[in-house]
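CORE FACILITY INTAKE
Project code: CF-77B
Contact: R.S. (postdoc)
Sample description: multi-component assembly, two entities in total
Requested service: structural model of the whole complex
Turnaround: standard
Below are the sequence entries exactly as provided by the requester. Do not edit them.
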Amino acid sequence: MTPEQLRLYLVTDRGLSLGRDIEWIVGEAVAGGVTIVQLREKDIDTREFVALGLRLKALLAPLGVPLIINDRVDVALAVDADGVHIGQSDMPYDVARRLLGPDRIIGLSVETLDQVKEANLLDVDYIAVSPVYSTPTKTDTAPPFGLEGLRQAVALSRHPGVAIGGMNAATAPAVLATGIDGIAVVSAICSAPDPRAAAAALRSL
Amino acid sequence: MTPEQLRLYLVTDRGLSLGRDIEWIVGEAVAGGVTIVQLREKDIDTREFVALGLRLKALLAPLGVPLIINDRVDVALAVDADGVHIGQSDMPYDVARRLLGPDRIIGLSVETLDQVKEANLLDVDYIAVSPVYSTPTKTDTAPPFGLEGLRQAVALSRHPGVAIGGMNAATAPAVLATGIDGIAVVSAICSAPDPRAAAAALRSL
Protein backbone atom coordinates (compact mmCIF):
# COMPACT_ATOMS: atom_id res chain seq x y z
CA MET A 1 0.00 0.00 0.00
CA THR A 2 1.03 3.63 -0.36
CA PRO A 3 0.87 6.30 2.36
CA GLU A 4 -1.52 8.24 0.08
CA GLN A 5 -4.07 5.45 0.56
CA LEU A 6 -4.17 6.32 4.25
CA ARG A 7 -5.29 9.89 3.62
CA LEU A 8 -8.94 9.41 4.65
CA TYR A 9 -9.59 6.12 6.43
CA LEU A 10 -13.17 5.10 7.26
CA VAL A 11 -13.84 2.70 10.14
CA THR A 12 -17.40 1.38 10.06
CA ASP A 13 -19.57 1.27 13.16
CA ARG A 14 -23.01 -0.27 13.03
CA GLY A 15 -24.16 1.40 16.24
CA LEU A 16 -23.16 4.88 15.04
CA SER A 17 -24.73 4.55 11.58
CA LEU A 18 -28.17 5.80 12.67
CA GLY A 19 -29.81 2.59 11.48
CA ARG A 20 -28.58 3.07 7.93
CA ASP A 21 -27.11 0.24 5.87
CA ILE A 22 -23.33 -0.09 6.21
CA GLU A 23 -22.91 -0.92 2.53
CA TRP A 24 -24.71 2.31 1.63
CA ILE A 25 -22.59 4.38 4.00
CA VAL A 26 -19.40 2.89 2.57
CA GLY A 27 -20.57 3.58 -0.98
CA GLU A 28 -21.35 7.19 -0.18
CA ALA A 29 -18.11 7.61 1.75
CA VAL A 30 -15.89 6.41 -1.10
CA ALA A 31 -17.86 8.54 -3.56
CA GLY A 32 -16.94 11.46 -1.30
CA GLY A 33 -13.25 10.59 -1.26
CA VAL A 34 -12.52 7.97 1.42
CA THR A 35 -9.29 6.17 0.44
CA ILE A 36 -9.45 3.01 2.57
CA VAL A 37 -12.23 1.23 4.48
CA GLN A 38 -12.06 -0.88 7.63
CA LEU A 39 -15.04 -3.12 8.33
CA ARG A 40 -15.38 -3.39 12.09
CA GLU A 41 -18.07 -5.67 13.53
CA LYS A 42 -18.05 -6.95 17.07
CA ASP A 43 -21.52 -8.40 17.55
CA ILE A 44 -22.67 -10.12 14.38
CA ASP A 45 -22.56 -13.77 13.38
CA THR A 46 -19.56 -14.90 11.36
CA ARG A 47 -21.82 -15.82 8.46
CA GLU A 48 -23.28 -12.31 8.30
CA PHE A 49 -19.79 -10.79 8.72
CA VAL A 50 -18.49 -12.79 5.75
CA ALA A 51 -21.53 -11.94 3.60
CA LEU A 52 -21.15 -8.21 4.30
CA GLY A 53 -17.40 -8.39 3.72
CA LEU A 54 -17.98 -9.99 0.32
CA ARG A 55 -20.41 -7.23 -0.64
CA LEU A 56 -17.95 -4.52 0.42
CA LYS A 57 -15.13 -6.25 -1.45
CA ALA A 58 -17.25 -6.27 -4.63
CA LEU A 59 -18.01 -2.58 -4.10
CA LEU A 60 -14.47 -1.43 -3.31
CA ALA A 61 -12.17 -3.59 -5.45
CA PRO A 62 -13.21 -1.98 -8.78
CA LEU A 63 -12.51 1.43 -7.24
CA GLY A 64 -9.06 0.43 -6.02
CA VAL A 65 -10.03 1.21 -2.43
CA PRO A 66 -8.49 -1.31 0.01
CA LEU A 67 -10.83 -3.25 2.31
CA ILE A 68 -9.43 -3.97 5.77
CA ILE A 69 -11.15 -6.31 8.25
CA ASN A 70 -10.97 -5.52 11.95
CA ASP A 71 -9.45 -8.31 14.08
CA ARG A 72 -10.88 -11.33 12.22
CA VAL A 73 -8.15 -12.92 10.13
CA ASP A 74 -10.53 -15.72 9.12
CA VAL A 75 -13.08 -13.25 7.75
CA ALA A 76 -10.32 -11.39 5.89
CA LEU A 77 -9.19 -14.63 4.25
CA ALA A 78 -12.78 -15.71 3.53
CA VAL A 79 -13.61 -12.50 1.65
CA ASP A 80 -10.14 -12.01 0.14
CA ALA A 81 -9.83 -8.65 1.87
CA ASP A 82 -6.76 -6.52 1.34
CA GLY A 83 -5.75 -6.87 4.97
CA VAL A 84 -6.61 -6.80 8.64
CA HIS A 85 -6.39 -4.24 11.38
CA ILE A 86 -5.34 -5.54 14.78
CA GLY A 87 -5.37 -3.95 18.19
CA GLN A 88 -3.15 -4.71 21.13
CA SER A 89 -5.55 -7.39 22.43
CA ASP A 90 -6.24 -8.99 19.04
CA MET A 91 -4.17 -11.72 17.40
CA PRO A 92 -0.42 -11.11 17.83
CA TYR A 93 1.19 -9.59 14.72
CA ASP A 94 3.47 -12.54 13.95
CA VAL A 95 0.58 -15.03 14.04
CA ALA A 96 -1.56 -12.79 11.84
CA ARG A 97 1.31 -12.40 9.36
CA ARG A 98 1.84 -16.15 9.22
CA LEU A 99 -1.84 -16.75 8.47
CA LEU A 100 -2.20 -13.87 5.98
CA GLY A 101 1.06 -14.26 4.09
CA PRO A 102 3.55 -11.56 3.16
CA ASP A 103 1.40 -9.50 0.80
CA ARG A 104 -1.71 -8.54 2.72
CA ILE A 105 -1.88 -5.30 4.68
CA ILE A 106 -1.62 -5.49 8.46
CA GLY A 107 -2.35 -2.35 10.44
CA LEU A 108 -1.75 -2.07 14.17
CA SER A 109 -3.27 0.25 16.76
CA VAL A 110 -0.71 1.88 19.05
CA GLU A 111 -1.85 3.51 22.26
CA THR A 112 1.48 4.67 23.75
CA LEU A 113 4.86 5.83 22.49
CA ASP A 114 6.33 2.55 23.76
CA GLN A 115 3.94 0.71 21.45
CA VAL A 116 5.11 2.93 18.56
CA LYS A 117 8.64 1.71 19.27
CA GLU A 118 7.48 -1.91 19.49
CA ALA A 119 5.70 -1.53 16.15
CA ASN A 120 9.01 -0.41 14.63
CA LEU A 121 10.28 -3.95 15.28
CA LEU A 122 7.40 -5.43 13.24
CA ASP A 123 6.70 -5.34 9.52
CA VAL A 124 3.28 -3.81 9.95
CA ASP A 125 2.10 -1.79 6.97
CA TYR A 126 0.78 1.12 8.99
CA ILE A 127 0.02 2.17 12.54
CA ALA A 128 -3.11 3.84 13.89
CA VAL A 129 -2.22 6.29 16.65
CA SER A 130 -5.13 5.91 19.05
CA PRO A 131 -6.67 8.03 20.40
CA VAL A 132 -5.46 11.50 19.55
CA TYR A 133 -8.40 13.02 21.41
CA SER A 134 -10.79 11.33 23.77
CA THR A 135 -13.96 10.25 22.02
CA PRO A 136 -17.34 8.76 22.86
CA THR A 137 -16.92 6.19 20.03
CA LYS A 138 -14.59 4.01 22.02
CA THR A 139 -14.66 4.09 25.80
CA ASP A 140 -11.96 1.49 26.51
CA THR A 141 -9.07 3.50 25.11
CA ALA A 142 -5.77 4.62 26.61
CA PRO A 143 -5.18 8.28 27.61
CA PRO A 144 -5.21 10.47 24.48
CA PHE A 145 -1.93 11.36 22.72
CA GLY A 146 -2.89 14.97 22.06
CA LEU A 147 -1.20 16.89 19.27
CA GLU A 148 2.20 16.91 20.93
CA GLY A 149 2.09 13.16 21.57
CA LEU A 150 1.03 12.60 17.97
CA ARG A 151 4.01 14.67 16.77
CA GLN A 152 6.31 12.47 18.84
CA ALA A 153 4.68 9.32 17.47
CA VAL A 154 5.16 10.52 13.90
CA ALA A 155 8.79 11.32 14.61
CA LEU A 156 9.42 7.93 16.26
CA SER A 157 7.61 5.68 13.80
CA ARG A 158 9.23 4.09 10.76
CA HIS A 159 5.76 3.19 9.45
CA PRO A 160 3.06 5.22 7.70
CA GLY A 161 0.28 6.14 10.07
CA VAL A 162 -3.21 7.43 10.63
CA ALA A 163 -4.54 9.38 13.57
CA ILE A 164 -7.80 8.23 15.17
CA GLY A 165 -9.99 9.56 17.96
CA GLY A 166 -11.88 12.82 17.70
CA MET A 167 -11.11 13.38 14.02
CA ASN A 168 -13.46 15.81 12.27
CA ALA A 169 -13.34 18.85 10.01
CA ALA A 170 -12.43 21.09 12.96
CA THR A 171 -9.62 18.95 14.37
CA ALA A 172 -8.15 17.48 11.16
CA PRO A 173 -6.07 20.46 9.92
CA ALA A 174 -3.87 20.64 13.02
CA VAL A 175 -3.63 16.84 13.10
CA LEU A 176 -2.49 16.62 9.48
CA ALA A 177 0.02 19.40 10.14
CA THR A 178 1.92 16.99 12.42
CA GLY A 179 2.98 15.06 9.33
CA ILE A 180 0.75 12.01 9.91
CA ASP A 181 -0.31 10.44 6.61
CA GLY A 182 -4.02 10.49 7.22
CA ILE A 183 -6.97 10.58 9.57
CA ALA A 184 -9.26 7.72 10.51
CA VAL A 185 -12.86 8.61 11.20
CA VAL A 186 -15.87 6.79 12.56
CA SER A 187 -18.75 9.02 13.60
CA ALA A 188 -17.68 11.98 11.43
CA ILE A 189 -18.85 9.93 8.45
CA CYS A 190 -21.00 7.09 9.86
CA SER A 191 -23.19 9.49 11.83
CA ALA A 192 -23.17 12.35 9.30
CA PRO A 193 -26.52 13.30 7.77
CA ASP A 194 -24.77 13.14 4.38
CA PRO A 195 -21.80 10.73 4.55
CA ARG A 196 -20.68 11.59 1.01
CA ALA A 197 -20.56 15.32 1.73
CA ALA A 198 -18.86 14.68 5.07
CA ALA A 199 -16.20 12.59 3.35
CA ALA A 200 -15.69 15.20 0.64
CA ALA A 201 -15.28 17.94 3.25
CA LEU A 202 -12.70 15.90 5.16
CA ARG A 203 -10.87 14.95 1.98
CA SER A 204 -10.53 18.58 0.92
CA LEU A 205 -8.62 19.51 4.05
CA MET B 1 -11.13 -38.89 13.23
CA THR B 2 -12.89 -42.03 14.40
CA PRO B 3 -16.49 -42.27 15.67
CA GLU B 4 -15.07 -43.58 18.94
CA GLN B 5 -13.47 -40.19 19.52
CA LEU B 6 -16.98 -38.69 19.67
CA ARG B 7 -18.01 -40.87 22.60
CA LEU B 8 -17.83 -38.14 25.27
CA TYR B 9 -17.50 -34.63 23.85
CA LEU B 10 -16.88 -31.69 26.18
CA VAL B 11 -17.90 -28.18 25.13
CA THR B 12 -16.39 -25.53 27.41
CA ASP B 13 -18.44 -22.68 28.80
CA ARG B 14 -16.78 -19.97 30.84
CA GLY B 15 -20.05 -18.77 32.35
CA LEU B 16 -21.05 -22.25 33.53
CA SER B 17 -17.67 -23.11 35.06
CA LEU B 18 -18.45 -21.63 38.48
CA GLY B 19 -15.47 -19.29 38.26
CA ARG B 20 -13.02 -22.16 37.87
CA ASP B 21 -10.20 -22.13 35.34
CA ILE B 22 -11.13 -23.65 31.98
CA GLU B 23 -7.75 -25.29 31.58
CA TRP B 24 -8.24 -27.03 34.92
CA ILE B 25 -11.74 -28.20 34.01
CA VAL B 26 -10.48 -29.60 30.72
CA GLY B 27 -7.61 -31.40 32.44
CA GLU B 28 -9.97 -32.99 34.96
CA ALA B 29 -12.49 -33.87 32.28
CA VAL B 30 -9.99 -35.73 30.09
CA ALA B 31 -8.61 -37.50 33.16
CA GLY B 32 -12.18 -38.69 33.70
CA GLY B 33 -12.58 -39.96 30.16
CA VAL B 34 -13.62 -37.11 27.84
CA THR B 35 -12.59 -38.07 24.29
CA ILE B 36 -12.73 -34.72 22.48
CA VAL B 37 -12.80 -31.07 23.62
CA GLN B 38 -14.39 -28.05 21.99
CA LEU B 39 -13.18 -24.65 23.19
CA ARG B 40 -16.10 -22.26 22.90
CA GLU B 41 -15.54 -18.60 23.75
CA LYS B 42 -17.84 -15.82 22.65
CA ASP B 43 -16.75 -12.83 24.70
CA ILE B 44 -12.98 -12.82 25.10
CA ASP B 45 -10.32 -10.96 23.12
CA THR B 46 -8.72 -12.82 20.26
CA ARG B 47 -5.33 -12.62 21.96
CA GLU B 48 -6.67 -14.32 25.09
CA PHE B 49 -8.56 -16.89 22.97
CA VAL B 50 -5.35 -17.81 21.12
CA ALA B 51 -3.33 -18.01 24.34
CA LEU B 52 -5.90 -20.32 25.97
CA GLY B 53 -6.13 -22.42 22.81
CA LEU B 54 -2.35 -22.90 22.81
CA ARG B 55 -2.44 -24.03 26.43
CA LEU B 56 -5.23 -26.53 25.73
CA LYS B 57 -3.41 -27.81 22.65
CA ALA B 58 -0.30 -28.44 24.77
CA LEU B 59 -2.46 -30.25 27.33
CA LEU B 60 -4.47 -32.39 24.91
CA ALA B 61 -2.09 -33.27 22.07
CA PRO B 62 0.10 -35.64 24.18
CA LEU B 63 -3.08 -37.43 25.26
CA GLY B 64 -4.34 -37.86 21.70
CA VAL B 65 -7.52 -35.94 22.54
CA PRO B 66 -8.60 -33.69 19.62
CA LEU B 67 -9.01 -29.97 20.27
CA ILE B 68 -11.83 -28.31 18.34
CA ILE B 69 -12.34 -24.53 18.23
CA ASN B 70 -15.87 -23.15 18.08
CA ASP B 71 -16.54 -20.89 15.08
CA ARG B 72 -13.15 -19.15 14.85
CA VAL B 73 -11.20 -20.60 11.95
CA ASP B 74 -8.41 -18.06 12.53
CA VAL B 75 -7.97 -19.16 16.13
CA ALA B 76 -7.96 -22.81 15.05
CA LEU B 77 -5.19 -22.10 12.55
CA ALA B 78 -3.28 -19.95 15.03
CA VAL B 79 -3.15 -22.70 17.66
CA ASP B 80 -2.91 -25.61 15.20
CA ALA B 81 -6.12 -27.08 16.57
CA ASP B 82 -7.43 -30.36 15.21
CA GLY B 83 -10.50 -28.67 13.79
CA VAL B 84 -13.41 -26.29 14.14
CA HIS B 85 -17.04 -26.63 15.03
CA ILE B 86 -19.44 -24.44 13.07
CA GLY B 87 -23.08 -23.64 13.58
CA GLN B 88 -25.62 -22.66 10.99
CA SER B 89 -24.82 -18.95 11.41
CA ASP B 90 -21.04 -19.38 11.48
CA MET B 91 -18.75 -19.47 8.46
CA PRO B 92 -20.22 -21.56 5.62
CA TYR B 93 -18.75 -25.08 5.43
CA ASP B 94 -17.13 -24.66 2.04
CA VAL B 95 -15.30 -21.50 3.09
CA ALA B 96 -14.13 -23.09 6.33
CA ARG B 97 -12.90 -26.16 4.42
CA ARG B 98 -10.99 -23.98 1.97
CA LEU B 99 -9.25 -22.13 4.79
CA LEU B 100 -8.56 -25.22 6.93
CA GLY B 101 -7.51 -27.63 4.21
CA PRO B 102 -8.64 -31.23 3.70
CA ASP B 103 -7.25 -32.79 6.86
CA ARG B 104 -8.66 -30.82 9.76
CA ILE B 105 -11.90 -31.85 11.44
CA ILE B 106 -15.01 -29.79 10.69
CA GLY B 107 -18.10 -30.45 12.78
CA LEU B 108 -21.48 -28.91 12.02
CA SER B 109 -24.48 -28.29 14.26
CA VAL B 110 -27.78 -29.43 12.74
CA GLU B 111 -31.02 -28.21 14.21
CA THR B 112 -33.57 -29.85 11.91
CA LEU B 113 -33.87 -33.03 9.84
CA ASP B 114 -33.58 -30.89 6.72
CA GLN B 115 -30.20 -29.72 7.97
CA VAL B 116 -29.18 -33.34 8.51
CA LYS B 117 -29.92 -33.93 4.82
CA GLU B 118 -28.02 -30.79 3.82
CA ALA B 119 -25.04 -31.97 5.87
CA ASN B 120 -25.07 -35.22 3.89
CA LEU B 121 -24.08 -33.14 0.85
CA LEU B 122 -21.00 -31.81 2.67
CA ASP B 123 -17.79 -33.53 3.71
CA VAL B 124 -18.18 -32.59 7.35
CA ASP B 125 -16.48 -34.96 9.75
CA TYR B 126 -19.34 -35.15 12.21
CA ILE B 127 -22.67 -33.53 13.01
CA ALA B 128 -23.95 -32.33 16.37
CA VAL B 129 -27.70 -32.92 16.65
CA SER B 130 -28.86 -29.89 18.62
CA PRO B 131 -30.74 -29.79 20.89
CA VAL B 132 -32.07 -33.20 21.84
CA TYR B 133 -33.74 -31.72 24.91
CA SER B 134 -34.32 -28.09 25.74
CA THR B 135 -31.62 -26.74 27.99
CA PRO B 136 -30.83 -23.60 29.94
CA THR B 137 -27.25 -23.60 28.51
CA LYS B 138 -28.31 -22.22 25.16
CA THR B 139 -31.48 -20.20 24.86
CA ASP B 140 -31.34 -19.42 21.13
CA THR B 141 -31.84 -22.98 19.94
CA ALA B 142 -34.36 -24.58 17.63
CA PRO B 143 -37.18 -26.80 18.98
CA PRO B 144 -35.69 -29.96 20.53
CA PHE B 145 -35.41 -33.16 18.48
CA GLY B 146 -36.48 -35.45 21.31
CA LEU B 147 -35.52 -39.12 21.22
CA GLU B 148 -37.66 -39.95 18.20
CA GLY B 149 -36.24 -37.01 16.22
CA LEU B 150 -32.74 -38.07 17.19
CA ARG B 151 -33.45 -41.62 15.96
CA GLN B 152 -34.55 -40.18 12.62
CA ALA B 153 -31.44 -37.99 12.44
CA VAL B 154 -29.18 -40.99 13.09
CA ALA B 155 -30.98 -42.98 10.41
CA LEU B 156 -30.76 -40.13 7.87
CA SER B 157 -27.18 -39.05 8.43
CA ARG B 158 -24.20 -40.45 6.58
CA HIS B 159 -21.87 -38.80 9.13
CA PRO B 160 -20.87 -39.74 12.66
CA GLY B 161 -22.70 -37.67 15.22
CA VAL B 162 -23.05 -36.45 18.76
CA ALA B 163 -26.21 -35.49 20.60
CA ILE B 164 -26.24 -32.20 22.52
CA GLY B 165 -28.77 -30.47 24.74
CA GLY B 166 -29.79 -31.84 28.12
CA MET B 167 -27.19 -34.61 28.18
CA ASN B 168 -26.45 -35.99 31.65
CA ALA B 169 -26.15 -39.31 33.44
CA ALA B 170 -29.94 -39.66 33.56
CA THR B 171 -30.64 -38.89 29.91
CA ALA B 172 -27.55 -40.40 28.25
CA PRO B 173 -28.49 -44.13 28.26
CA ALA B 174 -31.64 -43.67 26.17
CA VAL B 175 -29.83 -41.19 23.91
CA LEU B 176 -26.94 -43.61 23.24
CA ALA B 177 -29.48 -46.36 22.57
CA THR B 178 -30.56 -44.47 19.45
CA GLY B 179 -27.22 -45.39 17.85
CA ILE B 180 -25.67 -41.93 18.01
CA ASP B 181 -21.89 -42.13 18.41
CA GLY B 182 -21.62 -39.95 21.48
CA ILE B 183 -22.95 -37.24 23.72
CA ALA B 184 -21.77 -33.65 23.97
CA VAL B 185 -22.02 -32.05 27.38
CA VAL B 186 -21.55 -28.57 28.75
CA SER B 187 -22.93 -28.04 32.25
CA ALA B 188 -22.87 -31.75 33.19
CA ILE B 189 -19.10 -31.40 33.38
CA CYS B 190 -18.34 -27.64 33.50
CA SER B 191 -20.72 -27.07 36.41
CA ALA B 192 -20.07 -30.37 38.20
CA PRO B 193 -18.55 -30.14 41.70
CA ASP B 194 -16.03 -32.77 40.53
CA PRO B 195 -15.60 -32.57 36.72
CA ARG B 196 -13.35 -35.65 36.65
CA ALA B 197 -15.87 -37.80 38.49
CA ALA B 198 -18.69 -36.42 36.35
CA ALA B 199 -16.79 -37.30 33.17
CA ALA B 200 -15.97 -40.79 34.47
CA ALA B 201 -19.63 -41.41 35.32
CA LEU B 202 -20.75 -40.31 31.85
CA ARG B 203 -18.02 -42.32 30.16
CA SER B 204 -19.05 -45.50 31.95
CA LEU B 205 -22.56 -45.39 30.50
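Facility notes:
- Chain B has a mean pLDDT of 96.
- Chain B has nine helices and eight strands.
Invoice: internal transfer
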